[in-house]
Structures are given as structure tokens and as C-alpha cells.
From TrEMBL, chain A:
Gene3D superfamilies found in the cross-reference section: Oxidoreductase, molybdopterin-binding domain
TM regions (residue ranges): none
Pfam families: Oxidored_molyb (PF00174)
Highest taxon above the source species: Bacteria
Organism encoding this protein: Pseudaminobacter salicylatoxidans
Name the UniProt record assigns to this protein: Oxidoreductase molybdopterin-binding domain-containing protein
Domain Oxidoreductase molybdopterin-binding, chain residue ranges per copy: 49-118
InterPro entries: OxRdtase_Mopterin-bd_dom, OxRdtase_Mopterin-bd_sf
Automatic annotation (TrEMBL), chain B:
Name of the featured protein: histidine kinase
PROSITE patterns: HIS_KIN (PS50109), PAS (PS50112)
Alphabetized SUPFAM superfamilies for the sequence: ATPase domain of HSP90 chaperone/DNA topoisomerase II/histidine kinase, Homodimeric domain of signal transducing histidine kinase, PYP-like sensor domain (PAS domain)
Subcellular location: Membrane
Catalytic activity, EC: 2.7.13.3
Every PAS domain range: 209-280
Top class in the EC scheme: transferase
UniProt main location, coarse: membrane
Keywords associated with the record: ATP-binding, Kinase, Membrane, Nucleotide-binding, Transferase, Transmembrane, Transmembrane helix, Two-component regulatory system
Residue ranges occupied by any Histidine kinase domain in the UniProt entry: 371-587
Single GO MF descriptor: phosphorelay sensor kinase activity
Species for this entry: Pseudaminobacter salicylatoxidans
One GO-annotated biological process of the protein: osmosensory signaling via phosphorelay pathway
Length: 144, 603
């Protein structure tokens, strides 16, 4: 896997087979945008109204790095960390968004990357136990 | 009254229990649904965590600024801290969080800080000892406001939680009470159903008993009972039907009627069953039925009724009763009755005849009395007057005159004697003492003889006789009686026709009968009754002053009839009387030819 040409905004480490640095797969925005694009329209727990999110599917990036584990720890810049079972990404089209309503997500808001669950598409996701998985300012993914 | 109350209770109790059950269940479900909805916790309710993270990011920014001044923090880290700080601030300003903060009354410091963000951004990026107080001055009110907001949020959240718990507890209690109600209603229902099951079992037992009894009744009925469905397939066949038609119950059930006996193929029977299947009750009485292996027919009464299930016809029931014996008895009674009627009729006829005879006898005696008073008195009066004259003129009478008077008296007496003889003859006739000895007799000779004697008596030559041409007619009769009849007819003609008028006698042979007709000038038409002429002691209106007792024609007819002949008053020209004596011809079968030949030879 080639190294990123601009500063990395997402680091994937742990049980992965494809890397571009010492045990890490670095991604810049260009590399992320090269992944198969996905779109999701849903409400969120912290904003009003239905929002349109553009990004890529969590399971696509996991496949891209050849992840072999059972769980992913998603960590934000402020060290907010949540552990998620990998099979959840097969059940739901979990998105990592880089745009909301056509505008790039800003680092001073919830950007540059925000993990989005298809909340409106699955009633079971309208639950406080899923609401806490919406990690924003996502920076690291660790596969175990 | 008690029964009605019980029935009402039997319906009202379970119905109300079911209503209570349903209402309470619906209420409980509603409450549970409310609970389920209330149990959802929104992320915005996690305000304490949001505020605390904002507070921490603000403190971390302050720390990073201090580190930067000391040269311990690089610009990238500084930017990261600042971005996290901004992100938290933005989060607090987003829709749901903003509304919450407004509710907590902590938006003013946030808005003030947001107004100073460009200044803060540049200050943070070029942090130095001189900018520190300004950064602090900007962040401190924010931190204070967040502390207050956290405090209020905690209180509000706990209050909310307490209120939610209260509401939930209340709802739970309502549900518990409903459950108790549901249990009670359920208990009542269960109890009711147990009772109902017990009743149903009892009824089933009774029904079974009644069914068994009905089967026994049907089985032991002397009448054949057969039920068929709409396809005329047998569903019931009792023992009496088995005896009548010779099929067992098992083989008959399920078979078509017409397969079981020819009796059911008879048009009338088939139609009767068809009618009953369409809802009309039909009765066929005295229907002949030829049982298998038996020559004599039985007679049965067949009654068909529709079997209904509610308004729908599901088949027919046929009642077949053997009425052969009853029919025979009825026939015997009818025969007996007919016989009695005949007897009564015969007896009535006899009685009628007796009555007629009695009446005739009464008439006879009345006529006899009248006749006696007239006819017997006249000769007696003659005798009496002759004797009176004799006695009165006994001195002056010559022997010749005495003789004349004596002759007069004797002649009157002779007439009286004749009258008595005639009367006696009639009596003998009535008593059946007249003997008839019929034989072949030459009527021509007989008539000629009587005519000549009459001519001698009347002495006038008034009588003319006309015999047929050829052979003299031969009659089969008693010559004595024939002569008597003819004498009577002639004397009648002489007596009742005006003097010197002709009297004609003709004799004719018609093949079967010999007819001897006496014609004389008679009284005007209608002066006597035609048939009454032949009644005994009858005397026509033209007989006034003429001697006679009214037995002449009666005797004539009676004697003629005794010999197989008759005396008739025949139609004649006006002013004439025509009386005919009819006697059987000698060739008419009353006598044999040999007899006749013998008679001829003897003659």
C-alpha cells in the first residue's frame, strides 16, 4: 500500500495485512476519497433534521487494509474511544463520513471524519447504546 | 322468576367478566406501551457529559496555551486542542444541545465567547506571556458558565429522573391493580367455564340418554320409520321397516331408496317422497305393496314429512304402517253393511207391498160394501115388493098373477144367487183356489159356441163374429176359464152398450198370441177410468141403474193372466169400447206339436 502524499488524517493499526508504515496504514483525504463512495441520509442524536452524509463504508476500509480481528476500537482526537464488534459493520451500512449536506466536515466541528450509523433505516439503532458509537473527529482505528 | 334471574346471571356474569377482562387488559397494555415509550433515553438527556467534555476541552486549551508559552507544546498539538475546544463549543450550539442550554439559562456566556472566537483563535495561535491574561479573561466566564450549567443540568436530570420514576411507579401500580382485576375476572371466567363444562357434560349425558331412548322408540315402533337425505339415500331404517321390506338396518343405511324395494319406484310413492323433499307433507293411504316372496299384496299407509335443520330441508322421514288387517276388517264391515242395507231394502219392499195390500184390502171392503148396498138391496127390494103385493092383494089375485109375481121374485133371487156366486168366485180367485188346466184348444169353436149362447140369451142378433181365414186359431189355455172370460166380456158389452147397437167379435192369430176382441158402442170417452175398469168392485159412472157387482172384468183379467194371457182395454174409434182377450198361441211353445197332433186326431 503506498504511503499518503499529504498529512495522514486516519491511522489504522492492529490485525491488518496491508500497511504503508511501521504496523500502520495511514490515509490522507485523497486515499479515503478513492475508496468506494457511499451516501446515507439520517437524523442524528446531536443535530436537528435529516442530514445527508457522504463517505465510505466501514467494512470497505476494513477490507481495504485486510483486517482479520473481531473488534475495532475507534478513537477520536480527544481520546474518546469506543470498542465495536466487527460483525456489526456487516449487519449495518456504517459510514465514515467526510461530508455533511455536501460540505466537508471541519476539524473545528465534527470533522474531518464522523462515524455515522443508519439510524433512520434501522429502528434498533435508535438507542442510546448506539448513539455513543457516533465517534466524531475520528483519528484512529485499532483492529484486534 | 328465579329461573329468569339465574339465566340472566348466567349470561350477564360472564359477559361483564369478559368486558372487565378486556378493558383492564387494554388499559394495562396501554400503560405498558406508555412505559416502553418513556424508557427511551435521548442523548440530549446526557447533557452533564456534554457539558463536562466542553469544560475539560476548555481547561485543556488553557493548559495547552500555558504549555505553549513554556515551549512544551508544539503548534500542531495546540491546533488539535483548539479544534477539540471548537468542536465542543459547536456541539453545545447544535439544535438539541442549544435548546437544553437555553432551558438551563447558560447561553449568554456561550454567545459572548462565540463573538470573541476570531480574537481567541489568533491569540491561541500566537500564544505568549503577554496574551495569557486576555485568553484567560475570555475562557474564565465560559468555564464558570459551564460549571453552573453542569450543576443545573445535574439537578434537572435528577429531577427528571425522579419524576420519570414517579410516573413509572404510578403506571406500574395501575398495571398491578389492573392485573389483580384481570386475575379476578379470569377467576370468575374460569369458574364460569368450569360450571359450563360441568353443565355441558351433564347435558351430553342427558342427550345421550334421550338419544338412546329415541333409538329404542324408533326401533320398537310397529310402524316402519325410514329417513332419507336429499339424494334419497337411507339414513335411518328401523326394525319394522326391516320386517316390511326384508332388508337389514346395516345393508339399508346408505343405500338409495329405489334399490331397497320396488315399492319406492311406484310413481305415486316416488312423487310423494319428492314432494316431501320440497317441503310438503304427503299421506298416501291404502297403498298396495308386494313384499318379496309373497303373492298377496299388503296394504300400507305412507306418510312423508320433511326433515328440517332450521329453515333448510335436509331430507324426509317416511312412516310406513301395515294396514292390511285393518283394511280387511273394514271391507268385512262394508260387506256386512251392504248386506244389511239389502235386507232392509227387501224388508221395506215387503212392508210397502203389505201396506199396499192392506190399502187395497181396505179399498176392496169399501167398494164391496158400496156394491153390496146397491146390488144386493135391489133384488131384495124386488122380492120384497113382489111379496108385499102378493100379501096385500091376496084376495084379488089370479093364479096367473101370483105366478107372475112369483117369477119376478124368483128371477130377483136368481140374480142375487148369481151375484153371490160371482163374489165367491172372486174370493176363490183371491184365495188361489182356482185351478188352471191349460191344454191346446180350438178357440174358433169356443168363441162360436159362446156367441151362439149369448145370441140365444139376448135374442136380438146384435152379435157378429168374424173368424180368421184358414185354420181355426189354436190357443194353449184352460177352455173352461177361456169361456168364462169371453162370457164376461160379452155380457159386459151387452150390459153397457145401448140397446140394439152392434157388438162385434173378431179373432186373430199373431203367431205367439191369439187375440179375441169384443167391440161395442160405448159411453163417451173419459167417463170411466181406464185401469180402474179392471179393479174389483169398481163400477163406472155409466153403470147407474144396471145390475152388477164389478167383478166381471176383474175376474176376466185375473183368469187370463193365470193362463199366461191378458185382458186389455184397447184404443178404438170414438164412441166405441174395445176389449181384447189375449191368450198364448198353441204354437208359442206352451204346448208341443205332438200334443197338438194328438188333440187334432182326437177331435
Amino acid at each position: 500500500m503506498p504511503p499518503p502524499t499529504s498529512p495522514s488524517i486516519l491511522e489504522v493499526r492492529g490485525a491488518i495485512s496491508r500497511i504503508n508504515a511501521e504496523g500502520v496504514a495511514h490515509f490522507d483525504m485523497e486515499m479515503l476519497r478513492a475508496l468506494p463512495a457511499a451516501r446515507l441520509e439520517t437524523t442524528t442524536a446531536v443535530t436537528d433534521g435529516v442530514r445527508r452524509f457522504d463517505g465510505f463504508l466501514m467494512r470497505d476500509i476494513l477490507a481495504h487494509v485486510g483486517a482479520r480481528g473481531t473488534a475495532v476500537t475507534a478513537r477520536a482526537v480527544n481520546d474518546y474511544a469506543i470498542e465495536i464488534a466487527i460483525e456489526e459493520f456487516d449487519r449495518f451500512d456504517v459510514l465514515i463520513a467526510y461530508e455533511m449536506d455536501g460540505e466537508p466536515l471541519l476539524p473545528g466541528d465534527k470533522g474531518p471524519l464522523w462515524m455515522i450509523y443508519p439510524r433512520d433505516q434501522h429502528a434498533e439503532l435508535q438507542d442510546i447504546r448506539f448513539d455513543y458509537r457516533w465517534v466524531w473527529q475520528l483519528r484512529w482505528l485499532e483492529i484486534r | 322468576m328465579k329461573k329468569r334471574a339465574r339465566a340472566l346471571l348466567g349470561v350477564a356474569l360472564p359477559v361483564s367478566a369478559i368486558i372487565i377482562f378486556v378493558v383492564l387488559l387494554a388499559f394495562s397494555l396501554m400503560r405498558l406501551s406508555d412505559l416502553e415509550r418513556d424508557m427511551r433515553i435521548e442523548a440530549t438527556q446526557n447533557m452533564l457529559w456534554v457539558i463536562s467534555r466542553a469544560h475539560i476541552s476548555s481547561l485543556q486549551l488553557g493548559e495547552a496555551v500555558a504549555g505553549s508559552v513554556a515551549g512544551e507544546v508544539d503548534p500542531a498539538q495546540m491546533e488539535l486542542r483548539y479544534n477539540v475546544f471548537l468542536s465542543r463549543l459547536a456541539l453545545l450550539d447544535d439544535g438539541p444541545q442549544r435548546r437544553r442550554m437555553e432551558a438551563l439559562g447558560a447561553t449568554a456566556p456561550l454567545d459572548a465567547l462565540r463573538g470573541s472566537l476570531p480574537e481567541l483563535g489568533s491569540l491561541v495561535m500566537s500564544a505568549g506571556t503577554e496574551t495569557m491574561p486576555r485568553i484567560r479573561a475570555l475562557l474564565v466566564p465560559y468555564n464558570v458558565a459551564l460549571t453552573e450549567a453542569a450543576n443545573k443540568a445535574m439537578v434537572a436530570e435528577w429531577d427528571d429522573l425522579g419524576a420519570t420514576l414517579d410516573a413509572t411507579r404510578k403506571q406500574l401500580w395501575q398495571i398491578i391493580i389492573s392485573m389483580v382485576g384481570i386475575s379476578l375476572a379470569g377467576t370468575v371466567l374460569c369458574f364460569h367455564f368450569l360450571l359450563a363444562i360441568r353443565d355441558a357434560r351433564q347435558r351430553t349425558r342427558l342427550l345421550n340418554k334421550e338419544k338412546a331412548f329415541s333409538e329404542l322408540l324408533i326401533g320398537s315402533s310397529g310402524e316402519g320409520i325410514i329417513a332419507v337425505d336429499m339424494d334419497r339415500r337411507c339414513t335411518l331404517w328401523n326394525e319394522a321397516a326391516e320386517r316390511l321390506f326384508g332388508h337389514g338396518t346395516r345393508s339399508a343405511t346408505g343405500s338409495l331408496l329405489r334399490e331397497l324395494s320396488g315399492f319406492f319406484e311406484v310413481d305415486r310413492v316416488e312423487q310423494a317422497v319428492g314432494d316431501a323433499l320440497q317441503g310438503r307433507a304427503v299421506a298416501l293411504l291404502d297403498q298396495p305393496f308386494f313384499p318379496p316372496h309373497q303373492c298377496d299384496p299388503l296394504y300400507v299407509d305412507l306418510r312423508c314429512f320433511s326433515l328440517r335443520d332450521g329453515g333448510r330441508i335436509i331430507g324426509t322421514i317416511l312412516l310406513v304402517s301395515d294396514v292390511t288387517e285393518r283394511r280387511a276388517a273394514q271391507r268385512e264391515i262394508a260387506n256386512h253393511r251392504d248386506h244389511l242395507e239389502q235386507l232392509v231394502q227387501a224388508r221395506t219392499q215387503e212392508l210397502d207391498a203389505a201396506l199396499t195390500r192392506e190399502r187395497a184390502t181396505a179399498d176392496l171392503y169399501r167398494n164391496f160394501g158400496t156394491m153390496i148396498s146397491h146390488q144386493f138391496r135391489t133384488p131384495l127390494a124386488l122380492v120384497d115388493s113382489a111379496l108385499q103385493r102378493l100379501m096385500r092383494r091376496r084376495d084379488r089375485l089370479t093364479p096367473k098373477e101370483v105366478l107372475e109375481r112369483g117369477e119376478e121374485a124368483r128371477s130377483a133371487i136368481a140374480r142375487l144367487v148369481r151375484l153371490v156366486k160371482s163374489t165367491l168366485d172372486a174370493a176363490r180367485l183371491d184365495a188361489g183356489q182356482i185351478e188352471v188346466r191349460s191344454q191346446l184348444c180350438d178357440l174358433g169353436d169356443l168363441v162360436a159356441e159362446v156367441c151362439s149362447r149369448s145370441t140365444k140369451d139376448t135374442g136380438s142378433g146384435r152379435i157378429t163374429l168374424k173368424l180368421p181365414d184358414g185354420d181355426s186359431p189354436i190357443a194353449y189355455c184352460d177352455p173352461v176359464h177361456a169361456e168364462h172370460i169371453l162370457t164376461n166380456l160379452l155380457s159386459n158389452a151387452v150390459k153397457y152398450s145401448p140397446a140394439k147397437t152392434p157388438i162385434r167379435i173378431t179373432l186373430a192369430d199373431s203367431g205367439t198370441q191369439i187375440e179375441c176382441v169384443v167391440t161395442n158402442t160405448g159411453p163417451p170417452e173419459g167417463s170411466f177410468e181406464q185401469e180402474a175398469l179392471f179393479e174389483r168392485y169398481y163400477r163406472g159412472s155409466n153403470t147407474e141403474g144396471r145390475p152388477g157387482i164389478g167383478v166381471g172384468l176383474y175376474m176376466a183379467r185375473a183368469l187370463a193372466r193365470l193362463q199366461g194371457g191378458d185382458v186389455q182395454l184397447q184404443d178404438s174409434e170414438p164412441g166405441m169400447v174395445r176389449l181384447a182377450m189375449l191368450l198364448p198361441s198353441g204354437a208359442s211353445g206352451f204346448a208341443s206339436v205332438t200334443d197338438m197332433a194328438l188333440r187334432k186326431e182326437l177331435a
